[in-house]
């Protein structure tokens, strides 16, 4: 659990500043579950440059509560959380100073989004909150006011969590939260998991990820793992001290994240994907009459693979599907083994390509269209689908037929501006295996929208 924090102060000498405004959003990694926002009477004058920067003046604070009046609420909302702030060292120091004046030792673990951004967004031109969120297309209002900056920090932190494929943030958070064994309350983890699509991570007492998996129902899948029989399952359940998760909004994003993270993290209890997940491919040739023929062959025998499959049967099922969908010739595609004409020709349903009645040019256009619909080769597109919350969508970026990465956006200009989109994207390895996963998914299911891009 995190407490996203932003504080505005009076300015002045080091350790003599007073708080003028505070915003704290309790964040469970997916959404805000509690918040506290208030002006604070610092009982001292505000520096003129701070008034100009924030718009907060002495008159506004005369009737505001003093710090001691809100101290209990701050303790309650930050209890059992890790404080997250942009330049956390400053905000945490200010809070501790105020509590010290009351004779109370306020201690919390902290994470700094400046440090995390330098790690996960190494190409950023600036790490100031304003310039950073602007470069990412993140909307921000009430800049230099506590709640406006806190809300911007939440969006930035969500982006950093999504980009953190090594799970540095989660592992560091668990280490900060726990001392030795986790409590019974923390072990009762299934209760707080959502029935949503995503990837979940099982951690040992050191915070290390020992197992991860994609699923369309996180709560149900984890519960199944904890109740499954077998020595390996019982050992996994015993070693698991915490489960974290990342909602993906849709299954394709979950599939790609699981594949990428299995190769990077190589968890103890997971089987690592094979070096090549496919064995067969869709291949094309031209017959003596100039008509394109399609066949499913072992991948090594295919000069120009036009679709990847994990077996001959899945390949033939797809070939049968596109033959029907695009009214292709069953005999040319090897589906019909008739010695002369196929059954469709005898029934009057065949267009006659197999004996040359339809010009090869028009027939071959349909064959090409059937290939392009389900193949990523040379395409520059963004696959859009449901996001993690209402108003958000996921974006999978493909350039020159290869996966570039994925991310989430909630404003149209973020997806229409390729520079902003590339900043939002978490890079991924554009391997043939990744293409196989995407193409396999698209052959079975649909995404909300496919948008062509031009660089």
UniProtKB/TrEMBL annotation:
Xref: InterPro entries: DnaQ (IPR006054), GIY-YIG_endonuc (IPR000305), GIY-YIG_endonuc_sf (IPR035901), GIY-YIG_UvrC_Cho (IPR047296), Ribonucl_H (IPR013520), RNaseH-like_sf (IPR012337), RNaseH_sf (IPR036397)
Domain GIY-YIG: 195-271
Organism superkingdom: Bacteria
PANTHER family linked: DNA POLYMERASE III SUBUNIT EPSILON
Organism: Maribacter sedimenticola
Identification of the protein by name: DNA polymerase-3 subunit epsilon
Pfam families from the UniProt entry: RNase_T
